[in-house]
Amino acid sequence: MDDQNQAKKPGPELRRLNAFAGKWNTSGTLQAMPGDPPVYFHGTDTYEWLPGGFFLLHTVDVMMGNERKQSIEVIGYDPLSELYPMQHFDDQGESGIMHGRLEGDQWTILSSELRFNGIFSADMKTLTGVWEQCMEDSWTHLMEIALTKP
């Protein structure tokens, strides 16, 4: 059998995303505008492999205050940039692309408007971090978040 007929298999970079697989309890606070009181949120984040194991589907279902927010995201791997491209879509018609990097227990995400810095616990059952947004060429605190596997 030649190389073209052999089934493609996900590489070790994709297998590293197994740390996310499963259902997480999510909670945190959102600082919508500087000076406004923070809004508490809670819900679930679920990560599951699509058939073939090349893409991870991330679904979000949270209550932010009294408002339900839902979104999906597809995460893959780009060997040229060595980053994880992430395409997301939400229940308000918004979509976008971000790029993640997983180095040890550090998970970072970056787009032109948002960035996230998070860290996994030693047992890989908790991911905590901070989201920031770019406003007027300056990064400001947006959200603190914690995801915990039950």
TrEMBL record:
It holds the Pfam family DUF1579. InterPro entries: DUF1579 (IPR011473). This is DUF1579 domain-containing protein. It comes from Dyadobacter arcticus.
